[in-house]
Amino acid sequence: MAITKLVNTITDTNTKYSVQHTGLAGDATDLSDSIFANLSALKYASATVTISAAPTANLCIGEVLTTNDSTAIYLRVTDYTPAATTFKAYKVTSATDITPSGWTAETATDVGVGKTLTGSVSGLCSSATHGSTRLAIASPTINLRKLWWNLPSGIDYTRIYFDGSDTEQTIAYLVAGNGYINYAGGGNHIGAIGMGAADGNSSNVLGDVSVTTVGVAEHDTYMIGVEIGKLTGFELPNFFKNGQLGYAPNQHGFGDVY
Fold it and tell me: What are the residues facing 226 on neighbouring strands?
């Protein structure tokens, strides 16, 4: 039966993600490399999209591009340079709803190759997504700002770490009991914990906050919460660059202005 894990997202903005996980052990099976913060699945996760050629009409920063995948994907343009064959974007809910959503696959295969792009401002793009180069999620940089926990008395320890396909970076080993650390709280606090030696981003795992337990018993319960700061790889649209593209800064047509 292993551990039934419940996830309660508290905050997910372009600068911060806060989440609390609770669990009940159905038997003595431990958590093994269980992801508690999957960065590529968070809101505002930036990706670079390669297109087959420079489009005839420039993309408008802030507009939403709709793909013709079997299930349409909606991309909000965050950066584009005139005559470029790449642009940056994050995923949103629909062509008219710019609520951010996370990527659904670690390799972002939800956007196909050779797919058309229709902009809410620029119209049908003259160039499709590249025929072989897939969308690439940005390698993120984050830090750990807060950590809180409540672990059962019989557990040996819990390891919390930043993932990396080549090298992991341990954040802490926690034993039974409860606690709260505000690393970034100022004053005499330690300061936010960076990703350290974590390295390697195969399958977009770099920076994921993961947990492994040792010594879980049947009916044990646990609670672990983290707050991370999103430093790079989570971008808002650079509206003021629209002047270089032949558009007014807020011509994207949505109400947000930065």
Answer: 19, 147
